[in-house]
Design goal:
mainly beta; 3 domains; 22-stranded antiparallel barrel; 22 strands; disordered N terminus; single chain; Porin; 422 residues
Length: 422
């Protein structure tokens, strides 16, 4: 069913109502803070997590940058209430003259919604939220209805304005619309099965119609799974994943997987008329945790590009716990075939000093050659970091990093973070 098209005045009213909703949530947040923080954890009606970050270093243009960012996440739920309010956002400012990002004070609202549950098996969510179906996903300004206990069936319906994030901005208008429906199997032992449907509008023109199917069945020694997405406009399977997990003995998992991708575009996009090639991937992987403090992993991937090109990827890794508070991870990879070849390794470690301090360090190295290059290039990255927990709800962390590659002799990056919860 095609949604009713709103005029310009309706869009303005929608934006105005949204800002009223944000303001009301802010008032609830501020008015409840003093009372909430004095309550024991089980009686808290307001849970807040904050992260204040200072980031500095060189941007992708090689120019210095200094950014202060504030992340805030909260959940407000009065005792014995059937509703809750949840929000998450970020505000930041770049104090340098960046050629890539805007420098003025900026903000982004990732989600802000009210969840209302009048019955145990029904909930209504209103506001900005993330929805994820096999047929498609979106951040939307709208509604979501969940109903379960309909025999062995559960249903989720979502509709609203499709929210698009750019590097520094946000676009949300009713003409870009999202409608999604998911029907799933519930309360069937060791079984997951769902079908979904998604329709997207671009300025009230149908841009996409996609169907999705997902399943997984678990037994003692093996578990098959899969996901399929079908694009109606192109009449093609745009994405498919089929795999099998095997557990022949304790601590050993074997995986075999096939992945297929065929690029599709909105029917309103000029790119929808261009011919594209499919991509296929075959993966075999083994993960083994020995009884001693040692874990091993290895995998092989065969990549197929179109009908003629292919590449091979080999990876191997080990996790070692030589001391009680020390963890070391080492991995190597090798790629050959289409689009060039490369090999590299990564090593990182974490060490816990007492109850409050943890330290980390690592390095990455890659050497690669593209088809049009006459010589090999390399890329190296080093980092050190640490976290100090002042209390159970307050921690301080820092990280320093340097990048050396064909574009930068040195590209330093740093981050200092103060996290607290109350």
């Amino acid at each position: 069913m095609r949604p009713v098209k709103f005029g310009a005045s309706s869009v303005e009213r929608f934006s105005y109502r949204r800002w009223i909703w944000i303001g009301l949530a802010g008032i609830l947040f501020l008015s409840s803070f003093a009372r909430a923080q004095d309550k024991p954890p089980q009686d808290k009606i307001l849970d807040v997590k904050s992260s204040t970050q200072f980031l500095w270093g060189d941007d992708l243009m090689g120019e210095g940058q200094g950014i202060i960012a504030q992340y805030l996440r909260f959940n407000y739920k009065p005792q014995s209430a059937t509703f809750s309010i949840t929000g998450y956002g970020r505000a930041w400012r770049d104090y340098t003259e960046s050629e890539i990002r805007e420098t003025g004070p900026l903000g982004r609202l990732y989600y802000l919604y009210m969840n209302y549950s009048p019955f145990d098996n029904t909930s209504l969510r209103l506001g900005r939220q993330f929805v994820n179906f096999t047929a498609g996903s979106a951040v939307l300004d709208g509604i979501r209805l969940d109903a379960s206990g309909l025999g062995p069936i559960g249903v989720t319906f979502a509709e609203g304005a499709d929210v698009l994030f750019s590097l520094d901005g946000t676009d949300s208008k009713l003409g870009n619309h999202f409608i999604g429906l998911n029907i799933r199997l519930e309360n069937v032992r060791a079984t997951q099965l769902g079908i979904s449907y998604v329709r997207r509008y671009d300025d009230w023109n149908i841009a996409r119609e996609e169907f999705g199917l997902n399943f997984r069945r678990s037994w003692n020694y093996f578990s098959p799974y899969g996901e399929v997405r079908y694009d109606r406009a192109s009449a093609d399977v745009s994405e498919a994943l089929v795999g099998l997990d095997l557990y022949p003995v304790n601590d050993l998992m074997l995986k075999g997987e096939f992945y297929h991708s065929y690029p599709t575009f909105d029917s309103t996009s000029i790119y929808s008329v261009f011919a594209v090639d499919s991509y296929r991937e075959y993966l075999v992987q083994a993960d083994y945790s020995l009884s001693a403090p040692l874990g091993l992993t290895a995998s092989y991937t065969r990549q197929l590009y179109g009908d003629t090109e292919h590449a091979n990827i080999y990876t191997a890794g080990v996790n070692v716990y030589p001391l009680e508070h020390l963890t070391l991870k080492v991995s190597v990879d090798r790629r050959t075939g289409y689009a060039g070849h490369d090999w590299g390794f990564e090593i990182d470690g974490d060490y816990k000093v007492g109850e409050r301090l943890s330290l980390s360090a690592g390095a990455q190295y890659d050497t690669y050659k593209r088809p049009d290059d006459f010589s090999e290039n390399y890329a190296t990255r080093y980092w050190v970091g640490g976290r100090w927990s002042l209390r159970t709800d307050v921690s301080f962390s820092a990280r320093l990093e340097d990048n050396i590659n064909e574009n930068f002799v040195h590209r330093p990056l740093g981050r200092i973070t103060l996290d607290w919860a109350f």
